[in-house]
Amino acid sequence: MVDGIPLPGMKPGPDSVGAMVLPSCGGRVAAQACGFVDLGVCKVADIVKKKPLWCQDCRKLEVTISFSADHGGLIELVHTQMYAPSKLIAACDFWTLRYTCLLEDGNLVVCEESLIAGQSAYEMPTLPSFVRAEMFASGFMIRPSEEGGSMVTVVDDMKFKASAAVDGLRPLYDTSTLLAWRMTSKVLSYLRAYSKDKEETGFVSSPISTLPGLSHRLVRCFNDAVNCLSDDGWVPLSNDGLNNSVTVHIKPSPCCSGLGVNDVAAPREGIICAKAFLVLQKLSPAILMGFLRERGVAWADLDLDSGLEFPSSESFQDSLPKKKFSSVKVFQPSSEKNEAYEIVRLQKQQSAKSDVSDMEKFMLQFTSSMEDNTISAYSQILFAPIDASVTDDSPLLPSGFRVMNLDADPKSRVPSQTLDLASSLGNQPRMQSHVAYETGCALTIAFQCMFKAENRNAMTLKAHQNVQNLVDLLQKAPITLQPQPAVLISSSQFGSEVVLLVQQLVDCYRVHFGQELLPCTGGTSESLFEAFWSLQHAVVCCAWKPLPEFIFANHSALAMLECSLFALKEMSLERMFNDVCRKTDNSQLPPFLHEEGYAHLPAGVCLSSIGHPVSFERAVGWKVLTVDPNVQTAAFMFCHWAFVNGHK
């Protein structure tokens, strides 16, 4: 696979990632990546073999047997365990042989493949909560460069068994695209960050002390809480008399880790984890994530004295706890375009017994947007208490939400396409499929807190009640959070020029991107207009006459901009772009109108007509050909937009 025919859709040369479609292989997924890193061959080999270091989904990798082979080679028997992203999906493990060898041409190869029947593979007992997955020929080809550094080629070829408890959920890596983004490209990102750290500081700091390293710990600790595996010390508590939609586990501190299940009452201190899983049909994951980003951090504190209450009679939109929170600082690392970090200050209600030092708490908030619209892709928002005393080896207690895409109707799935994913490794935004409708989502909730002997029972009950109240609250989301139906949905309420403009806009999108902007319509101008007006993503059309002027927008765009069609012309184009883009002269035509005819815009923040900040995960722009050749027209689409914290 390394030396064979390049994968379709991949750019030639370095810095490329490809997802391979294997429709006839019964669930196999494969991906390939290639990139240059400023590290020596041996150092690269040492890092790539430590998968838990760079792959957040890898729970554990253990070399059970190793022995030397000919020509200085090394053969290892490896047991790898992968986390389950949700308890609705089983975790998986591999038993593989890994071979490391320095070839005669100076290249170093690390290749790995599952043991097959007759090679003791199926004599290995399957652990509880795990299913056995299969790895085909995979690994790394590391070529030294004459100028220093190495050219690294990564190949992953795997097969995961479906074992979901809910229809519509798929295994950990359902498609080759997911495999490429969650595993294959991650190792190159880590190698480059490691090399950059060494270049800037002259030495390599602890990989878990940097901000990306801190997020790596955060995600892995959250995965521990989601899985709650017994060999990590987690013990389930009885739910007698309580609603079974919420489960509670405790993890005694290390000094009490030898206690058995019958000694649950004995631990003097430890961790409580309350978690729940629910399926929300007919709710877009993007809409739910927007709501969680806006309000989720206010639910972060499970302390008994925090005043964190959710009365059942409370209305959904007024469901914030009585606690102030504000952003202190936002970090946006360049290595991962779909991830963001934020330090948030929580301010508690003051009481006569409260110490001033206890009045506020700082949270590290980590948000990752959905990497793909593929089924089983997920977004997450995690938060953990943090202060200056947090050390490299101190435990983090992340809580949060994981929103997984759900396929409610398997017949509606679009076959995976072979993608060029190279741009994520550089500075260019990557292309994603523009799906304007989604079928539902599966939500994982997990909250953790510390307990002591004197308050364990009270903390357990409080954690259970708080998460149960959250479940009750969020079960209303499919009805309450759905976008309000458009008031104007008939093309007869607009002139023929507007109807023609919508047709031209849709046709030009198809020409530039090779896919449909709208779901299947009835073929009439009326049905086309109605589909455009009710599109979930915000689409606004701008014409240069010669100065830019907004001429039309769909219902979602008007809601995002908080204005009417009559006030749309008063909007400024500068509000449609982030701070970097605002430095440009927007009175001039965008370059893409003269060149390719379309452009991909990275995630950013724009402002509504009344100054409210609105975040969007991605945006695209394309040229629209109209009947007037003297007027240049462009359309912009903002996907998965949401008002930023503290605003509607």
Automatic annotation (TrEMBL):
<dbReference type="Pfam" id="PF08670">
    <property type="entry name" value="MEKHLA"/>
</dbReference>
<dbReference type="InterPro" id="IPR044830">
    <property type="entry name" value="HD-Zip_III"/>
</dbReference>
<dbReference type="InterPro" id="IPR023393">
    <property type="entry name" value="START-like_dom_sf"/>
</dbReference>
<keyword id="KW-0371">Homeobox</keyword>
<feature type="domain" description="START">
    <location>
        <begin position="46"/>
        <end position="203"/>
    </location>
</feature>
<keyword id="KW-0539">Nucleus</keyword>
<dbReference type="Pfam" id="PF01852">
    <property type="entry name" value="START"/>
</dbReference>
<keyword id="KW-0804">Transcription</keyword>
<keyword id="KW-0238">DNA-binding</keyword>
<dbReference type="InterPro" id="IPR002913">
    <property type="entry name" value="START_lipid-bd_dom"/>
</dbReference>
<dbReference type="GO" id="GO:0003700">
    <property type="term" value="F:DNA-binding transcription factor activity"/>
</dbReference>
<dbReference type="InterPro" id="IPR013978">
    <property type="entry name" value="MEKHLA"/>
</dbReference>
<keyword id="KW-0805">Transcription regulation</keyword>
<protein>
    <recommendedName>
        <fullName>START domain-containing protein</fullName>
    </recommendedName>
</protein>
<dbReference type="GO" id="GO:0008289">
    <property type="term" value="F:lipid binding"/>
</dbReference>
<dbReference type="GO" id="GO:0003677">
    <property type="term" value="F:DNA binding"/>
</dbReference>
